[in-house]
Amino acid sequence: MWYQDSFDVIVVGGGHAGTEACLAAARMGCKTLLLTHNIDTLGAMSCNPAIGGIGKGHLVKEIDALGGLMAEAIDHGGIQFRTLNSSKGPAVRATRAQADRLLYKAYVRNYLENQENLTIFQQPCDDLILENDQIVGVSTQMGLKFKGKTVVLTVGTFLAGQIHIGLNNYQGGRAGDPASVDLASRLRDMPFRIERLKTGTPPRLDARTLDFSVMQEQPGDTPVPTFSFMGKTEHHPQQIPCYITHTNAQTHAVIREGLDRSPMYTGVIEGVGPRYCPSIEDKIMRFADKESHQIFVEPEGLTTHEVYPNGISTSLPFDVQMDLVRSIKGFENAHITRPGYAIEYDYFDPRDLKQTLESKFIQNMFFAGQINGTTGYEEAGAQGLVAGMNAACRVQGKEGWTPGREQAYMGVLIDDLSTLGTKEPYRMFTSRAEYRLLLREDNADIRLTEKGRELGLVGDARWQRFCEKMENIELERQRIRGVWIQKDHPAAEQLNPMLKNPISREANLEDLLRRPETRYQELMTIDAFAPGLDDKQAAEQVEIQIKYAGYIERQLDEIDKKKRHEGTLIPTDFDFSQISGLSNEVVAKLSDARPETLGKASRISGITPAAISLLLVYLKKHGLLRKTA
Amino acid sequence: MSDNSANKSLTNIETIAAQATPPGRGGVGIIRVSGPLASHAAEQLLGKVPKTRYAEYLQFLDANKQVIDQGIALFFKGPNSFTGEDVLELQGHGGPVILDMLLKHIIGLDNIRMAKPGEFSEQAFINDKLDLTQAEAIADLINSSSEQAARAALHSLQGDFSNLIHQLVDDVIHLRMYVEAAIDFPEEEIDFLADENVSNSLNGLITQVADVLAKAQQGAIIREGMRVVIAGRPNAGKSSLLNALSGRESAIVTDIEGTTRDVLSEQIHIDGMPLHIIDTAGLRESPDKVEQIGIERAWKEIKQADRVLLMIDSLQDEDVDPTQFWPEFFNQLPDNMGLTIVRNKADISGQVCGYKVSHEKPTITLSAKTGDGIDALTEHLKQCMGYEGNAEGGFMARRRHIQALENAQQHLLTGQEQLLSFMAGEILAEELRITQQALNEITGEFTSDDLLGQIFSSFCIGK
Prior knowledge:
The complex is a heterodimer. Chain A contains 20 helices and 22 strands. Chain A is an alpha+beta fold. Chain A has four domains: 2-195 and 348-460, FAD/NAD(P)-binding domain, CATH 3.50.50.60; 204-344, Beta Barrel (Elongation Factor Tu (Ef-tu), domain 3), CATH 2.40.30.260; 479-563, tRNA uridine 5-carboxymethylaminomethyl modification enzyme MnmG/GidA (Arc Repressor Mutant, subunit A, Orthogonal Bundle), CATH 1.10.10; 568-622, GidA associated domain, C-terminal subdomain (DNA polymerase, domain 1, Orthogonal Bundle), CATH 1.10.150. In chain A, helix 3 (70-77) packs across helix 4 (101-113). Chain B folds into three domains: 15-131, Gyrase A, domain 2 (2-Layer Sandwich), CATH 3.30.1360.120; 142-220 and 398-444, Four Helix Bundle (Hemerythrin (Met), subunit A), CATH 1.20.120.430; 227-385, 3-Layer(aba) Sandwich (Rossmann fold), CATH 3.40.50.300. In chain B, the strands form two sheets. An eight-stranded mixed beta sheet of chain B has the order 8-9-10-7-11-12-14-13, sandwiched between helices. Chain B has a six-stranded mixed beta sheet with strand order 3-4-5-2-1-6, with helices on one face. Chain B is built from 16 helices and 14 strands. By secondary structure, chain B is an alpha/beta fold. Chain B is globular and about 80 Å long. In chain B, strand 8 and strand 9 (264-270) form a beta hairpin. Classes of the chains: A alpha+beta, B alpha/beta. Chains A and B meet through helix 17 and helix 20 of A and helix 1, helix 4, helix 5, helix 6 and helix 15 of B.
């Protein structure tokens, strides 16, 4: 049976990718359907209750800059906020917040329910409806069919999930939810390359059975940071601390004795786990000389006693989990509320996707989130937004868009995935970005909001605030270039203690601010320089833009140089073996990755500049040399 | 930003420079500069931009305005030039040292870099300066010249120099690992930026780069010219051939003591172009340990050669393909290695001396003893040099390496300043990233994922 209405964009899956995808499409005015197997789990955090961190916080700010929900939701659901790397430079500072799962989830669900142009329907999706190589709709478990011009698949961990606790294993999505097996097997019949990954979670504990007095308290920062550029500290609920404890020799002994029943060490699990998030048994085996490992004891919310002991993810049998938990300081009497487990799941080789996250094989079908081999809510949300936006562009007959590597971590993420693929659950790190000094949390809006407005992603309130901020920055930069001070000026007496070397000749405020030791707010306490900006975000920009100026310029230069053939398109069905002179190895690598552009081709490991030249000459010879938009 | 790129033409926004004539002591050596900064380079080198399309006789200056050379300077305004960009051509005396000094000055200017092998032709082709029918020839040129460049780079990276560079790269990676881990994993109790180890390692690196640079600039490491290795069975007449070849131009022969007791190398010049002739131990199965080592070294030379002269006895039946009677040799020979068959002892076999192609291989019949046919061989080698020696000589390779090292040095120093004065870890990280990028040009790529791999295998990361 066909559902009465047809949709512009159908989003399958209501996780963090699905949420941002359907919201983006709806904001752009598309008639959008969110199809989820369970409305009650919309906005659920299936892993640890936290948003942000280095690299990840950057992604959240970018989602926010494009009008997305994640930053706003965590501002309303966050119970401990910190700025990481605050002692280092602004480029690598990142916000991280601990979430109250229920508050976060409630905020997301409420927001979705009130989004204009968005319809929500609960039914597991178990098939895709294709016409030739084009998707035209989906059908659900009870045989209901939905017609859609485009479909965004965000079915994450649920794809053919296999949960392991000790040597026992069973099919399942995240613990407590069913795995979507039908859809997985349907997708397996399509021409995609499918691989297995694995990830894990720690056992959860009952806070009433823990002794926090022997752990180290870790309070949030004051003043409390916010995530959204529109965020206010008043949005935050009550703030509470986290705690830190450690594993010890006894913990390690317990784990070693249990290894013969570990699915990891007995070869039951085949999927590849992340290098940066090893299970506790992995940590102990690989770093045998380390006597102790940190555990961050994170509250799951204000109204629950459950805590998340971050750092002891494990798939050891339950009796070993009990012993290892109780060997830890402060956990001696701990009650485990949910056992830890490892989960293996399918993912689709993201090299089969275009830069817009559309499938290279099936038109109008987009993939976003964990299904593409990433891990983390932030990575999922970022892809969701890009996929939803590009689906909407397709419907509206507009050219698709994805930020470049020089514009956003989103761009780095999607370029890495679609060019290089991934062998482990992909997580963002700042070291993945070439232009780290440009891609900062603090300027995500300056990088993206204007483009977001143009696409229809950014609402009036945000746009107005953005324009005001930009104007403040511009006016203040003009002002401080015009404020001069001579060395015999009376204000020099106030100024010189703030400087490493006292001023020796006339200088303007910009010169002074360029000195690494000066601070904008401090300089503004000098009457001759006042009044400074009340707009804190704008003031921060003025300071950072001036201090980083040389480096920013250099990175912009570097970007310009790389632009040359970056957007030169390679035809989709191009046969690389036609090009004489390319080694077999290079042909194999290119055929495997099917890069869409010369720029992407040049980033594939083992592709030499000479190979790119040969490709270029070939394209030119055959009249295929065209630029993308 | 993507909107802007749509409007940009395909033209190169970078300015590139390289030697446009084959390496060696030709009568004239040409340096070509192509791109938007070509006129800027002219001002720096000549004190003026020559009138478009007029040859002017001018002095070529170095960075301190000292005269390096004098010669003809030509300036072409794009698109009416070989590459379609603004082009400056300097035609000076052909000596490698002078050309190297000129090139050094040019690529020392901001935003001018050394051209990749074949890049001028590539540019010309992309800018419609060359016919479509020339596409294959351009492709061949890019291919052969990048292979040549790779080989020249390999030669430049011999022995000590190579060890020092690799040690340097390893140490840069090691330091980056600490710095990047401290940035990406601030909660992992590894804040090394605050640690003295970082500034100590940085100091160490700066000393190392200075050492390597000093060594590279001594020039002892690199030998200019095509390497021709004489290989064959014992007693095939290899040493006689070496004597015959070097004897002809004994006036300018410099004997270089072989690095091993049984590999002898002599430099000769043909028409002013340098050539290394390397004599090796006869190849055979031998129970003698010392001889075995000699044979091993012979193979090492063969694998690094630009061309191998395989000496066989002209008493061998000419109708049998050499690959037939000595398959083990051909199996071990690297793919695409230039090979010439030399049929020696024509004075005994009575065969006619000279050049012909036999079994699809260039074949020279001669007598090393009497000298008959040596002419044909030198003529043949000259032809080979014209093609194989076309792209990059050792000086170019070394110039690339030195430039990479100088870049690395510059960024290490800036990084150190940022760290010491301002504790700016993210800037140090940026400078180290660029340092590594520069060194990658010598040792090959090292990706951010490789770096993450190093971090995860060295530190226990992960909540």
